[in-house]
Structures are given as C-alpha cells and as structure tokens.
Write a structure and sequence with these properties.
heterodimer; A: about 140 residues; Rossmann fold; six-stranded parallel beta sheet; globular; B: about 220 residues; alpha/beta; Alpha-Beta Plaits; five-stranded antiparallel beta sheet
Amino acid sequence: MKAIVVGCGRTGSAIALQLSTEGWDVTVVDEQEEALARLGSRWQGGFVLGHALDDVVLRRAGIEGADAVAVATDGDNTNIVVGQVAQMRYGVGCVVVRVLDPARAEFYAARGLRTVCPTQTAISALAEAVRSCRVEAGA
Amino acid sequence: MYVIVAGGGKIGANVVRSLVAMGHEVTLIEQARDRFVMLEEEFGHLVLRGDATEIHVLEGAGIGRPPDQVLAVTGDDEDNLVICQIAKEGYGVPKAIARVNDPRNQQHFDLLGITQTVCATTSILGLVEHEAPEHGLVRLLPLRKENLEIVEVQIPARSPAAGTRLDRLMLPEGARVISVMRDGRAEIAVGATEVNAGDQVLVLLRPGKEEDLRRVLLGEPR
C-alpha cells in the first residue's frame, strides 16, 4: 500500500515513520530539504522536495497510485486545499488532513473532508482532565 | 451593496477606496498589524483586524448577512480559496471573487468551484501575446466552467494548412474551428471552408491542446 505524507514537521515525519514501519510504501513531500533529516538516516521511503500544490510535485510523489494521503504542513489552508485536490482531482480514497483551527476543521468535515483537529483533541482532553480532578477533590 | 474585502494590500486598499467612493458599504479585513494601523488611519472603522480565513473573523465582518460580494485578494492563494469556499458554501454569498497570485494555482480554484478569479500574471501575459502575434496563437477567452478556451491563430504563409478545406484538416481532438476571417470579413466555419495564408482563425479548444493545434495550423511548434 502506498501513502503520501505532505509536510515533514514533527507530526508528518512521525506519521511517515510509523506507516513505513507498518509496511506502507511512504513518500514524503516537503518544501524544505532539511526536513528530510527528521526521517533519520535509515529512511527507506521516498522524499520529494517542493510545494504540494505543484502538480509536478504531487505526481512525482506518486499521487496517481496512492492509496492514502496524510496532509500535515504548518498551514491550515494549505492542508485544506491539498486535501481537496488529492480527493477530487486524483480520487485518492483515503485523505486525512490536519486542521488546527476547530471551526475550519468542522466546516470542511461537514463537506466531506476527513479533518483531524489536534486543538479540539487537546481541548477535550484538558477539559476532561479538569473534570476528573474535581471528582477526586470532592471524594 | 455590501462587500467584504479580505486582504488590505495595494489591491485591497484601492478596491475599498473605490467602492467607498461609489457609495457602497464595505468591510476590509487585514491581518498584519502595521498594515492594519495604516489602513485604519484612512478607512477608520471600516477596517477589521484579523485572519479572514477564520470563521469568527468573517462573522465579525458580517458574512452572515450575507454580503453581496466577497473579494479575497490576499497574497496567499490557499487563503483566498478557503475564504471564497467559506463565503459561498457556508454562507451562500452570491459572488466570491478571488485573486490568483500564482497562475499555476488557477486549476485548483477551478477544481474547487471558485470560478470568478483574477490573475495579474495571466492578464499581462495575455497582453504580451496580443502584442507579439509571431507566437501565432493568442488566447482570447478562457471558458473555465466548460474547460474550454477560444484562441485566435493567424495562418502564416508557410502553414501546412494553407489551401486546405477544414474537413480535410487533421485537427487535434478537442479543437473546433469556429470562424475564419479574411480581408476583414469573418465567415462561420463549415467543412467546406478553406483556410488560407493570412487568415485569422478562431478555434474552440480544450486547454492543453495548444501545441497540437500549432503543429497543424502553423507547422513547427514554437
């Protein structure tokens, strides 16, 4: 199975390494060459330098035969657009997009884009942690 | 008319200035602090500071009314795309116009249904092509919704097509000659219409077929 990870920051690189360990054929796309270092010296997958909205870059990364695309650059709007392009132009079945802004994540989720919002996850987890504190204090 | 303008650069600021002079109601959204302070001096309460791709900022600007038009003219194509999508799909804004900074991104706007776009580079290039007919092929009109374009070709003296009837011409797939103009008079093209050197030919074309068309009507690709 072939996966493309767009954005090789802390999140993207970790996703790439994990999928690769699980047997996926992974190609990473990032605008900065230095990002490749995050994958470690033993990285066996692909790496394409460039902006993911550049068709040539996505094709070189193998978008036409990709089973999954995970988008996690540091720009919400870039992620949203790249995700929609992967889904609509290239018909990739599994597209997952990181969107930090909860409102935008919800807006695009309602329109059929699979968004993951770490901010919302943090909000829920923190609120839950506070709630559980109170229970213990009261006990 | 109520208009929200996202992005207070040279384009945004000048558009707002003109719209205000025409008597329209306008809100301008600008993210950068320094720029915002400058704009506020001129436009006062018409300027709102914030990221126009954030829904609560757009709501603060009155996107829910909804405005008659939203103009997304920031320097970032992804931002402009998202602003227009939120305006059209989320709030039913009837008209969302986007600035395209990098013409290579045009296809993404088309794909995502943002059909009203303006790209300075493409416009300038269109003018250059018009002034330099030796390129042979001038894009007159892009028909984005249809994914077609109308181009004009001037048939050169040594064209392999000169003296040929249109129905004998091996035009590329996705190309249809609409009219042939000779000595200032245009004729609607039919199969029996003959193409001659010096003719100006209008062709309905599938974008991407320009080189194939050049080969047939002009000879060597440039």
